[in-house]
C-alpha cells in the first residue's frame, strides 16, 4: 500500500511544475512515513466501507446521530492498530493511537469525538485514576464492550471546576456514595455520548464524607442498561438538542436524585474513602500522580492541536487549488473576451490573503508533530523517573506550552478557514466546498477542553513565575528550553538596527524580534500587575486587568516563537532541495505573526522610525511572491488524499469545473420538480411564454 | 400597538438600572419611531402566524425550501405596507419597503432573500431597465402573480461580468433572440429561486445582432410553466444542492440550448434592437439612466448593509445579556463555595472582547439609517433633476460609499458574531443560541452582491481620482462631503502632539487622526502605483500591487471615518441624557478601529514615541470601563424583541438558566430512547450496575 497521495495530472500541472522541490520528498519530510502509512490504511479502509459513505444531502440530526453511533461500532471493529502494538512502549503505542485518531478525525470528526470520549479518555482515566479494583471495567473498555462518557462541566460552571456542585456523599451504613444534583444549574451538561448512547459515566463530583467536603473526585457511574439503553432509576438524563455542528454527537445533560453507587466506584489512585468513611489521600507515588494529572489535562488538548492542524491543512488545500484554477480579470484590464485572465493566485492580494495561512499550516503541522514527541516523552518519563523536581518542572513547562498552543492552533485554523471560505467566493458557500463543515468542526475547539481565553493565562502565569524566579534567585526552570532566552535578557538587542529589509530574513533576526517582544511583554505585564496590585491589593484583579495588550499577547508571542523554534530545528535536518521553500515558509509565518505585534516595538522604544514596519511588510509581500511557484507543491505535500479533503473545489485533479458540473447535475433531485410543487403554485398566474403576441 | 420592546424585570435589572439614560429614549433616538412601528407590525403579525412557526429541530434542506416558499407566499399576502403608501413619493415609499424587508430579514432571512430577488429586484429591474411594453409583466409582479429570478453570475465568472458568455443572438427572420450557453462554465448559477420555484428570469446575456456583440443586456426569459412548474423545452435547469446556510433558498443553475424569446423581451430602456436587427442606444434621458444604473448596482448592497447591521445587533445582544448573567470565578480566587463569583461582564478582557462590537453595532446602525436617507435622496434626484454633472458626481460618491460600507458592515458583523459565539463559551455552540445561524446568514454577504475584496477597490479608485483632480485642477467632487477634508491636506496636522490620553477623547482628535491616516494612505498608494506603473507600464498591475497595506486599508479607513461622521452628526441632535453614552460609544468605535491602523502613523512619521499607541490603548480600556454600567441599556435600546433575537442565551428576561432548562427538557425526544437503539447495542456488554459485588 502506498504512503503517497496520488496526484493526477491535469490543470494544476502548470503550477505544480514550477515548484523547486519534489512534493513527495517534502511530504515525507513533514510527516513520518511510518505514521503516514497508518493514516493511509485507515483512510483506504474507511473509503471502501459503505457504512462510512458520506451523504450528499443534509441529514436530520437524529439520522446523523444514528450513523455516527453505528460508524463508531464499525470503526472499533477494525482495530486499526496491529496486535503487536499493544506491547510497544507507552510513547510509541500512544503515538500510533494518536495517528489513527488523526486519520479518523479529519474524515469523520463526530466518530472521532465519540471514540475519544467514550473509549479513549475512558480507558485513560481508568488507567491513571483507577486501581486494580477497576480492572474488569478497563478490560471491558479495551474490548470495546462499553461506551462511556466523562461528566465534568455543569450548566452554570465550566472553567471554574471548583464551583461545581454535583455531590457524592458517603453513606457508611450501606457502603455507598449517594449522588445528588442540587439544582438545574449544577446538572452536568455538554457530556458527549451521554444524550443517547453511553452506558457508563466517569462523573466528577464533590466528595463528602463524615460531614466534610474533599473536593472533586472521579466516580464510575452506570447510566443505562447496556441491553436496553434504558436509564436507571434516580437519573434524569437527556439529549441537549441541536448544536451548530458535530451533529452526530449526542451531547447530554444529567441530574441525579439520591442515586447510589458502591464505595468501590470511586477512582481511588490518589485518594480513597475507607469503609469507615475516613478520607485518605495516597500520595505514595508522586511521579505517577504527576503524569496522571498531566495526561488528564493535556492529552485531549494535544489531540485537538493535531486535529486542528489537519483541518487547517484541508482549508488551505481547498483555497489554493481553487486559486490556481479560478481565473478573474485580465492584466490588460480591457475586459475583452480573451483567454488571458489571471488565476487568482497571481494576484498579490490573494497571495497575501492565503499564503500566510499556508505558512501557518506548514509550521504548525511540523510543530505539532515534533511537540507531540516531546510531550509523550515527558509523560513516559513521569511513569519511570524518580527525579520528581525535574519532572515537575517539565510537567509545568509542557502545561505552559499546551495551554498556549491549543489556542494558537485552533484560532489559526479558525482564521484560515474563514479566509479560505471567502477566497473561494460564492462557490466557497457550497456545502460541497467542505469549508463550512471544517469551520463548524473547528468551532467548538476554541471553547472546549479549556476555553482558549482562559487557557492562555496559564502560559503567561508560568512565564511570569519564571521571570520572577530568574530575577530573585537566578533560577530558570525551563528543561524544554521554551524560555531559555530569558536568561540573556540583559544582552538582548533593544534597538532596531537593521538597515535593509532582507536582513530580517533570517532565523537570528526573527528570534531577536521575538525575544525582545516577549521580554518586553513580561516586564510590562509584571509592572502593570504590580500597579494594579498596589491599588486593589487583589492578585486576582491584578491578573484580570493585565490580560488585554499584556499577558494575552505574551502567551501568543511565546507560543508563536516556540512553534517556529520547533520548526527551525526540524528543517535543519531537511534535504537541501527543500530548504529554501521551508525557510521562506518559516520567515513568512514569523514576520506575518510579528506584524500583528509591531506596535509593541514602538511602545517599548525598540523602534521609532518607519523602517521596522516597512521592512516587515515589504518582506511579507516579497515572500508571497517568492512562494507563488512553490505554493501548489507545498499543498500537495501537506494535503491528505482527495477522499479526506472531500471538497469539490480542492480536488488534486484540478478539474474544478468538471467536478462542479458533476456535483450540480447529480445532486439528488437536482433537476426534478419538488414533491411540494403544487403547494406553491400561484393561482391565476399569467403564462408569459404563451402570450408572446402581447410582448 | 406599542413600538417598544417590552423589557421584563429579572436578573438583568442589576445592570439595567446602572444605565445613565432611559433605554426607550435611546431606542427612539437610534431608530425612527415610525419605521420601528412598521417593523413591530411585521414582527407581531408573523409571530402569531403558525406558517411562520420556527422549528426546534434541524429540518431537511428540502423541507426548508418547501417552508420558505410557502412562507413567501403568505408574506406576500400580508401586504404589510398600507395601501396609501403606493402613492407616497419614491423616497418615502422605498424607505418603508426597506423597513418591512429589514423586519423580515432579521427573522426569516431566507424568505427575505427569496422575496428580494424574486419580487423586489424583479420589479426594480423592470422599472429601471424595461419600458411600456413590459408593463403587463410589471403589473403581474406588483400583484404577486409571478416569482422571478435574476441570472447574472456564471459558473466561471462572477465579478468580471464582461467575460460572461451566455449569448442572445437576434434572429431577424423570426424576430426572436436565440439564447445559448456555450459550455458548462458559462451556465448561469447561484441564481436564487431558480433551482425549484421561479417561473421567470431576468437574464443577462451578451447581445449579438448582425454579427456584432453589444455586451451584456437584460432579457425577460420564461423558465417554467406557472401552472405546473415544469421547465420549458430548450432549458436545462436545476438546483445547486446543499449550501453552508440559507438552506431555504433554491439556488439554481441553467443552460440554454437555442432557446427562443421574442424580440420584445429585451429590456430596452437604454438600448434596443429594431425589427431590422439594428442596435440602437437610446440615451435620451441620462438622469434616469444614471439613477437606474445606480439603483441596480447599489440597492441590493444598501439592503445588505441594513440586514447585516441588524444581525450584528442581535449577536451583541445575545453575548452581552449572557455576559451579565453568566458568572465565573471569584475575586478572592480561593475557589471557595461562595456566591461572589463575578459576571463575565465585570472582566476587563470580556469587556474588551465585546464592547467594541457593541460600539460598532451602535455606530453602524445609526450610519446605515442616516446613509439610507442620503442614498434614497440621490436616487430620487436622479429621476427629477437636470443637472447631470452634479448628479453624476453624487452618484459616483454614493457608489464609493456603498462600495466600502457594504464590506465594512458585513465584515464587522462577521467578526462580532464570531467573538460573541466564543464569548458565550460552550453554550454559544447550541443552535438555540442562534449565533451559528447568524454566522451562516451573514457569511454569504461578504462575497455576494460584489465580493468585498473587489468592491473596496471602487472606493480607493474614486478617492485617488479625487486626489488627482484636486492636485491637478484644484477640483474636488464630493457633493456629499465624504472626502471634503482632502482640500485641507496641507493644513492637516502631521505630527502627534497630544500630551495626555484624554485629549484623544474628542471628535476633533479622532477626526485629525483619520484625516491624517487617509491622506497618508492616498499619497502612499499613489506613489506606489506610480512606481509599479513605471516598471510594468500596466495600470491594472499597478492597481493590483497596491491593494495590500495601501488601497484596501485606505477604503477601510475612509468608510470608518465616514460612518463616524454620520454618527456624530446624528448624535448632535440627541437628548442631553443620551449624549455621554453615545459619545463614549463613538470614541470607542473610532479608537478601536484606529488601533488596527496605528502602524501607518509610525510608518508615515506622524508618531515616533510610545505615546500614540499607549494613549489609544489606554483609552480603549478606560472607555470599556466607562461603558460597563451603560452596556445593558444600550443593548435594550438596540435589540429587537425576543421573538426576533430568538436566542435562549439572549432573552430580555435574563432568566438564562430557566430558559436553558426549558430548552433541554422540552427539545423533541430529549429524554426518550432513540428509535435506533437496538442497532447500537453492544453484544454481551457487561452490566456494571448489576455486578456490584464484584466492584
How would you summarize this macromolecular structure in one to three sentences?
Chain A has 2 domains: 148-279, Beta Barrel (Butyryl-CoA Dehydrogenase, subunit A, domain 2); 287-476 and 500-665, Butyryl-CoA Dehydrogenase, subunit A, domain 3, CATH 1.20.140.10. Chain A contains 20 helices and 11 strands.
Explain what this protein looks like in three dimensions.
2 copies of one chain form a homodimer. Chain A is an alpha+beta fold. Chain A has 2 domains: 148-279, Butyryl-CoA Dehydrogenase, subunit A, domain 2; 287-476 and 500-665, Butyryl-CoA Dehydrogenase, subunit A, domain 3, CATH 1.20.140. Helix content of chain A is 52%, strand content 9%. Chain A contains 20 helices and 11 strands. In chain A, strands 1, 2, 3, 5, 6 and 9 form a 6-stranded mixed beta sheet that branches. In chain A, strands 4-8-7 form a 3-stranded antiparallel beta sheet. In chain A, strands 10-11 form a two-stranded antiparallel sheet. In chain A, a hairpin with a 5-residue loop joins strand 10 and strand 11 (279-281). In chain A, helix 8 packs parallel to helix 10 and helix 8 crosses helix 18. Chain A is globular and about 90 Å long. The N and C termini of chain A lie far apart (66 Å). Chains A and B meet through helix 4, helix 7, strand 7, helix 9 and helix 10 of A and helix 4, helix 7, strand 7, helix 9 and helix 10 of B. Chains A, B: InterPro entries: ACOX_C_alpha1, Acyl-CoA_Oxase/DH_mid-dom, Acyl-CoA_Oxase/DH_mid-dom_sf, Acyl-CoA_oxidase, Acyl-CoA_oxidase_C, AcylCo_DH-like_C, AcylCoA_DH/oxidase_NM_dom_sf. Chains A, B: Its cofactor is FAD. Chains A, B: Keywords: FAD, Fatty acid metabolism, Flavoprotein, Lipid metabolism, Oxidoreductase, Peroxisome. Chains A, B: The active site is at residue 449. Chains A, B: GO terms for molecular function: FAD binding; fatty acid binding; pristanoyl-CoA oxidase activity.
